[in-house]
Amino acid sequence: MNRFSPLLTQTIGLLLGLLLGFGAVGRRPVRAGSLPAGNLSLLTSPNPAESLRVAEADLGRLNAGSPARAAVHVRLGTALLELRRYGPALQHARAALGQHQLASIGDRAEGLRLLGRVQLAQGDTGQARQTFMRALQLAARVGNPAAQASLHEHLGDLSASQQAWPQAQRRYELAYGLWQRSGNAASAAVALHAVGRMHLARRQFSRALYYLGQSTRLARQLGDSTGTGHVLLTTGQVYAAVGNHVLAQGFYTQALAQLPPRGFPALRGRMYQALAAAHDSLGHRNVAGELLQRAIVLARVSGDLDWKSELYLTLARLQRRQGNVTGALGSLTRYVSLRDSAAGERHLTQVEELRARYEADKKEREIELLTKNRLIQEANLRRQKLARNVLAVGTALLLLLVAGLVRGRREQRRVNRLLQRKNTAISRQKEELDRLNRTKDTLFSVISHDLRSPLSSLYSLLALLNLGALPPERLATHTQRLTRTLDTTLGLLDNLLNWAASQMQGTSLRPERVRLDDMAEECLALLLGDAERKQILLLNQLPKPCQAQADANMARLVLRNLLGNAIKFTPTGGTVALTARLVGEQWEIRVSDTGVGISVADQAKILAEAEPHTTLGTAREKGIGLGLRLCKDFVERHGGRLSFESRLGEGSTFCFTLPALAPQGGEQPATVPAAIPAAESAGG
After folding, report:
1. Measured on CA atoms in the order 542, 543, 548, 552, is the torsion positive or negative?
2. What is the pLDDT of residues 177-230, one digit of tens each?
3. How far apart are CA 78 and CA 82, in angstroms?
4. Phi and psi at residue 429, to the nearest 5°
5. Contacts of 205 by beta carbon, 8 Å cutoff, 6+ apart
6. Count of Cβ atoms closer than 10 Å to residue 551 Cβ
7. Which burial class, exposed, middle or buried, applies to 635 when counting CB atoms under 10 A from its CB (0-12, 13-18, 19+)?
8. Selecting from 3.40.630.30, 3.40.1160.10, 3.40.50.300, 1.25.40.10, what CATH number does the domain 35-143 have?
9. Per-residue pLDDT tens over the stretch 363-404
């Protein structure tokens, strides 16, 4: 057996060299524990399993609608993440985000931070970066510098995992500034530690020692022994990197002494591994082996199979250099077994993660589908609401337009009525002005008609007196006749002035009981001079008494004008007759003459409202053409009418009506007198 011992030893050494990459006789010191590039992986809670149990109990006490469920889901996910149970941690992260309608913005930011940490732990750095950035935006929105600093640290860890050292260093520096602003000195010390680690990764050893020294002083001031031990561990790694294993061993020993007796198994195990590497470099292999055994025990407690297999591989190499082939083979066997178990566990973890990711993606797709449906429904509701609002606004505008049109139409009608009233008032004023103008013309017409005869008689008498050839008898006769004519003319002037005044003042009709037969005698006496000059026979055939209800002045003017016109257009030796008959309740008075008559062409002009129509009489008498119009106006005011019949060369008959009155008690209408010459009628 002893014969074959050197051969067996040589064979095992060759096998170890091939497996471990040393060669048959190669030597390599124990490696210091390779810590993660970030600063949060080792400083987890002392007992994540207990944290998980408490969080599960808290979640069971909350109802489904409680806003506090989001924070509890974050605690559960964090504990599961520390236990490297990434699938359930991812589910709780998504459950925390599912409470976004009930949770605050800060809780949503914490949920996103947990989701990003799980994604980073699973190696999905792209999704982790997007998640951290979303959480950072929410934290900045609520103005929470502590949350922003924590997210900058996670982004620094992500960049460090990709060996993007400058970007990671920048994130840690931003985190340090935010921790200082929020007054969190302990977290600021951790950020300084992370900045020092980035300088170590970039092999900037002096700057790394500067930031690590600041972090150590700050942690000691705060009494944070765990944080101090972690920084001392990193400081020892700096000295180990420059080959000063003695100083490195001293810092590792100080770091190990800073840790509390219980808790933080991963950090304590890393310290044992680093201290073993320092002793191995100094040739203290037995001490290094003991330290590695302690680290393996702590790795077994932490449940990290990869780290545990790494420790067995390091131990196998150490035992190989010590010549302990049997121990090296056992450690190597454990390494291979743990590596396979770790690979299987990683495979199962990957499968579980894939399944969880599939479920999560499925739920996300369902959520996205539900969200899209909700957005579509909301869009439809918005469109319906918009259409309803547009319809309501359109209806309101239409109603306003209709109301405006109705109001405008009413206003237009009001304006039209006002304009109509104004036009009516203007028309009345115009009619009044026309009436006044006609009154003025009528006044002049009456004066020219009624004053011409007495003035002519007076002029003739004065002419005879001037000649001195008038006998006394004739002078007395003419004087007596002229006196009667002047008396009648004065009465006529008084009546004329009263009538003109009533016309100018717009006085209405003032009817009274009149005797037309007596009024006719007065008019014939006034016109007797003109009839004598033309040797015209005047016939007054009115019955006595002939009583009517009329305005005396107007009736007198009508008779005088009609008789004057008859004399005017009757040639020498003709006849003018005045007759009357009772037709119903009206007197129909006729003035007939044997004059020249009226042509058919002039008949339409006699009573027209156009310009006054006048012609010369048979003795070249002049007129102004207003007599008949004045007669028509006065007759119509009494409710009667004026008409005429005429044939050219045979004479004319003018007829007008006035309201009749019954004779007073005892009076009976007399017979119509026979025709008498003009001279006799004047004298009687």
Report:
1. positive
2. 999 998 899 999 999 999 999 999 999 999 999 999 999 999 999 888 888 989
3. 6
4. -60, -40
5. 199, 238, 241, 242
6. 21
7. buried
8. 1.25.40.10
9. 767 877 887 888 898 888 888 888 888 989 989 999 999 998
Q: What is the pLDDT of residue 44?
A: 54
Is 619 in contact with 609 (CB distance < 8 Å)? no
**Measured distance CA(360)–CA(362) in Å, rounded:** 5
Contacts of 73 (CB under 8 A, 6+ apart): 59, 92, 93, 95, 96, 99, 111
DSSP assignments along 10-73, one per residue: HHHHHHHHHHHT--SS---PPPPP---SSSSSS---S-HHHHHHHHHHHHHHS-TT-TTHHHHH
Please list the residues that pair with 647 across neighbouring strands: 651
Neighbours of 658 (CB within 10 A): 26
Q: What whole-number distance in Å separates Cα of residue 367 and Cα of residue 100?
A: 13
Domain extent listing, the chain = 35-143, 305-360, 383-435, 451-507, 511-683
Handedness of CA 274, 278, 283, 287 (dihedral sign): negative
Structure tokens, 2:
């002893």
The SS3 call for residue 509 is: coil
Query: Which among 655, 528, 649 has a CA at the least distance from the CA of 595?
Result: 649
At the top level of CATH, which class does the domain 511-683 belong to?
Answer: alpha beta
Query: Six-digit token pair at 241?
Result: 């990197």
Check if the beta carbon of residue 32 is closer than 8 Å to that of residue 295.
no
How buried is 40 (Cβ within 10 angstroms: 0-12 exposed, 13-18 middle, 19+ buried)? middle
Is the per-residue pLDDT at 555 higher than 60? yes
Question: 266-275, 303-312, 349-358 — which one is most confidently predicted on average?
Answer: 266-275
